[in-house]
Structure formats: C-alpha cells, structure tokens
Amino acid sequence: MIKLAIIGTNWITEKFIDAALQTGLYQLSAVYSRSEEKAAQFAKKYGDLILYTDINQLLNSSVVDAVYIASPNSLHFEQAKQLLESGKDVICEKPLASNYSQVRTLIETAKAHNQIIFEALKSYYLPNFDRIKSYLPKLGKLRKVLLSYCQYSSRYQLYLDGQNPNTFNPAFSNGSIMDIGVYPLNVAVALWGKPNHISADALLLDSGVDGHGTVLMKYDGFDVVIWHSKVSDSCLASEIQGEDGSLIIEHLSVGEKVLYKPRQGELQDITALQIDNEMYYEAVKFAKAIEQRDIDHQGLTYSLISAKLLTEIRQQTGVIFPADKLS
C-alpha cells in the first residue's frame, strides 16, 4: 500500500484522491497546505490524517511514500524537486513545471535519487486513448488532424471584473496553452512524437497570458492544428483524418467518445468502457511505476518533448513567466 500525501486542497485533488483510493493501491496519510485551516477542513472528509503546514515536515515524514502535487503551476518545480531529493516519489499535475529547463532538471533529479517523477496527464492512460492508437493504422496515410479544447473559464469573469485570479496570472505560470492547450498538445506528442516544425499564434490578455490560441504542428505528410481557449466554449469534436478513414474524438482530454468512419463505410462507435473517474488510470500507472521502480518510464519522454514545445509556443506568442528568468 502506497502511503500518499497531497499538496493542494482543491477539486482536482479530491478527484485524484477518490481515484487513487478506488484503485485499492493507496492509503491517504497526510495533507500539506500553507493554511492549517484549509488543511484541516480538507482532511476531515477523509478521516484521521496528518496535517503539515511546513514543507520540511512533509519532506522528512516517515508516513509518506509518494506525493500528489496540485499546487499552482509556478510552485510545481521547487516542491517536486525538494520531494525527490528527500526520497519521495512524485505525481504532479500538468504542466510538470513552468518551462523546459525546469522539467529537464526534475527528471535529472529524479533519476539521480532513484525516485519516480510522473506527470499527471490523464489522457495518455485512458482505455479510449489505447483505442485511438489501435485504429490509427486503419486510416491509411494521415493527412489532417484537428485537436480542439476550448472551455470558457469559470475565473474569466473575475478577471474581467478587475481581479487577478491565478489562471490568468503569469506569476503562476498559467494561461490557455499551459492550462488546457497542454491536453491536445500532449496527445499529439504521445501519438506522433516531436513535430518537424511548430508555429503558434495567440491572443494575449492585458495580464500577459494567452486567452486563446492556435498551434500548427507539421509532421511528414500531415499536419496537426490545435485550438485552445479559456475565453470561449466549443462543442466541436477533434478529428484525425487519413486517406482511408477518420477518427472523431469527443472531449479529447477524457476520451468521452470515439467514432471511426471508413472512407467508404458507415460511422462506427468504437468507444471503450471507462471508469467514470478518468484519473483512475493515471493513478494505477503511477502505482505500477513505483512498484517496479521504473524511474525511466515512457511518460518522461512525452513530458520532455511537450515542455520543449510549450516553451517554444510561449516564445513565439510572447508569453513570459517570472519563472523563465530564474531558469
């Protein structure tokens, strides 16, 4: 049983805890928050947990094997690095860190200390992602791909009202490409690797982060267009087009539904059954990496490529984080 601690007391942390406990592979042991009140309020949902408000207490804890990090993006690097150096395995919400340099350092640190660093990019590990991969050969030569994730942020009105929520604040290494554009980007990387060329455009808000944008990734014989937005909603599915057929994916980040359309044939629903809490699968994969001490798991390759691309995209669109100046 993996003794788990969490950093971050928000809805996504609750969802991961529920998924982790559902696997039967974890025991929730501790909660870390800079606010003792928040830690206590969060912990009471899960019984008798140890509360930490000092990161050093967590680093030196004997009742914690692994830590799930769901703090603001800008805090991921320092927290994960300290935990790895103290002998804890780490699963960290996407993006793994603010830029490529930080991600590379985290991976080097994990390997140097024989620890697991794992980016919680749930899309990789879904049964419907496996279904997509298994059907790609049926499409023939790929030609066009559209991967779309556009979701109006619940925090956008706060921003318009003159407040400064984390999700639109460069100090927290946030914005559209880092928050939700990372999903389609990582799907493309996991399916086809590093593109031959990438170009990006975005609308920058006055705060300095991107509200929405478009990314073009060119591969041999086909291209991938990514639409991402935190200031508009979309019901448009993603699509992978080949000479012999196409795949249509609804709600790409969770693999809600997958359809296959042969060029000369009927539309087929090929959706695989999935557990409702899609974070279950990443929790299982992380547990297996811990059990096998797989410090060089495949996800690290994806994380490095994606971090390099995210950094390049921000350089092209003019989004600069304070963390970039420290790396």
TrEMBL record:
<feature type="domain" description="Gfo/Idh/MocA-like oxidoreductase N-terminal">
    <location>
        <begin position="2"/>
        <end position="118"/>
    </location>
</feature>
<dbReference type="Pfam" id="PF01408">
    <property type="entry name" value="GFO_IDH_MocA"/>
</dbReference>
<dbReference type="InterPro" id="IPR036291">
    <property type="entry name" value="NAD(P)-bd_dom_sf"/>
</dbReference>
<dbReference type="InterPro" id="IPR000683">
    <property type="entry name" value="Gfo/Idh/MocA-like_OxRdtase_N"/>
</dbReference>
<protein>
    <submittedName>
        <fullName>Gfo/Idh/MocA family oxidoreductase</fullName>
    </submittedName>
</protein>
<dbReference type="Pfam" id="PF22725">
    <property type="entry name" value="GFO_IDH_MocA_C3"/>
</dbReference>
<feature type="domain" description="GFO/IDH/MocA-like oxidoreductase">
    <location>
        <begin position="138"/>
        <end position="247"/>
    </location>
</feature>
<dbReference type="InterPro" id="IPR055170">
    <property type="entry name" value="GFO_IDH_MocA-like_dom"/>
</dbReference>
